[in-house]
Each structure stands twice: as structure tokens, then as C-alpha cells.
């Protein structure tokens, strides 16, 4: 029985031949994503804007408009109702009422009475409240976590490899994060702490894939010092292509099943992860490798130059500074 090979050993795809098209496409997507984030913004969840979320279990499905009509009797018109995993599990999100914590507790008690008393078979299973101060702190710390993760990764790659690779990895990570944020600005899916966790996971996955490619590039630079750089990069990407495809495909299949069959509460997280896997694979193959050419990386870039020669042709060691 022969093992299944998704990518043959003799694969030789000229990826770098299309680097200008791929990079141009990536830059256009980054610009469009940033524009979407600025113009449309995000549908921020309760974690970032504050408010109350009441989780309700129904013995049988009830039209959402019926629940909305019941809630409107209390004056709650600015609310969001969505299903969590099925038509019998719903969440009702409302802004926090003005006042102290006691006002929020009173409002929650009123909503519980209206739901359990006015909707047959309804039972409140949980109430979550996040104040505006806490939500602002969560938003700020979430942004700081993303920035520190990217800077820490850049410092590690600079130390582990060279500055060319650090800049390439940072640009690839920025590409992945920007496109993911643009997707949420376009679709207006709820953006909460789960999405921040998904983006951090995407950063880790994309970095892992990029480092595998970079490690093979550096190894081949030591072996083929006279090879043209585009050919060397193509060789390195093709040699790691099997690992990239198998890893991305196996994770992608699991995420696709969760996206189609999983509960509604993790839909945004799963969608972000699946998109990030696709974008991260693309950036590892095209963006992170192609940008090394823009940075003038050469096969002999890291080869130590011979010491300067004296008048009679003998090597002269660097003069020691007292």
C-alpha cells in the first residue's frame, strides 16, 4: 500500500513567476480592507461596547419578532436577538441602562419577567453584563495584544534569521490580519474577544508556516550560493509545499465542518479561522517569499567576506581597538 501524496516529490511550480501579480493583488486587498475598516467599522460585540446579554432556552421555537414585540413593551427597542446553536437557544442583547449596577439588575429582572411570563416555554438561563469602562479596557488590551504579538514575532525572527526575513514575516502577518479585519468589516459579523483570539491563532499559524519556508530558504542559500534568487525561492517553496498543503487542508476540513454544522456561538470564530488558514497559506507561498526579492536578498548575503589583503597579498586582521 503506497502512501497518499497530495503533492508529488518532483513538483516544480514557478510561484515566483507570478509574484508581481500576487503582490499587487495582495496590496489591493490590504488597501480595500483598511478602507472597509475605516468606512464601515465593525459590529462590535458586548465585550467591546458594553451592554447586557440574556440567554433564553425555549421548549419550542418561537418567532423572533414575537419576542421582540414582548420586549418592546418595556421600552427595549434597541436590542439584538440571535440564535445560539439552534432555534431553541437565543440571546437577547440590550444596551446597559443609565445608572449604577442596581439599574442594570432591575432591568434584567424586568426582562426576565417579560420573557418567562409572556413567552410560553421560555426560561432565562443566564445574564451577562459588561460596563462601558470594562468594554473599553477589553478593546484596548485586545489591540495591545495583537500589536505586541506581531512585534514579538518580528524580534524573534530577526534574532533567529536576519532582518530581511523579519520584515518579510511582519508584512505577511500584517497582510493576514488586515484581510481578516476587512472580512469582518464587510460582513458585519459580530466582533468580540473570540475574534481577537482567532486572529492571534491565525498569527501563530501563519508564522509557523512562514518559518518553515524561511528555514528551507536559508538552508538552500548555504547549498546553492550561485543559484539565481528567484529559482532558489521557487525551489524552497516547492520543497515545503507538501507540508503546507497537508497541514492547511487537514485544518481547513475540520473548520469547514464546524462552520457548517457547529453551534452559532462559534460561527464568527470558525469563519475567522478558516479565512485565516486560506490567507496564511497564500501569504506563506507568495507574500513572504516574494518580498525577499524586494529586499535585495542574495544567495551570498550572509556569507562572511574575506579579510582585507595587505600590500603583499596577505590577509590583514581587523585592528583591535584598545
What does this structure look like?
By secondary structure, this protein is of the alpha+beta class. It folds into 2 domains: 15-43 and 135-294, Up-down Bundle (Multidrug efflux transporter AcrB transmembrane fold), CATH 1.20.1640; 51-130, Alpha-Beta Plaits (2-Layer Sandwich). The protein has 10 helices and 6 strands, in the order αβαβαββαβααβαααα. The strands form 2 sheets. Strands 3-4-2-5 form a 4-stranded antiparallel β-sheet. The longest helix has 31 residues, at 193-223.
Number of strands: 6
Number of helices: 10
Q: What percentage of residues falls in helices of 4 or more residues? A: 55-70%
Low-confidence stretches: 307-322
CATH H-level superfamily of the largest domain: Multidrug efflux transporter AcrB transmembrane domain
Shape: elongated
Question: What is the strand content?
Answer: 5-15%
Helix-strand pattern, N to C? HEHEHEEHEHHEHHHH
CATH topology of the largest domain: Multidrug efflux transporter AcrB transmembrane fold
Structural class: alpha+beta
Strand order of the largest sheet: 3-4-2-5
Distance between the ends: 69 Å
The figure for the number of domains is: 2
Main sheet: strands, sense, barrel: 4 strands, antiparallel
Radius of gyration from the alpha-carbon trace, in angstroms: 27 Å
Q: Class of the largest domain in CATH?
A: Mainly Alpha
Average pLDDT works out at 79
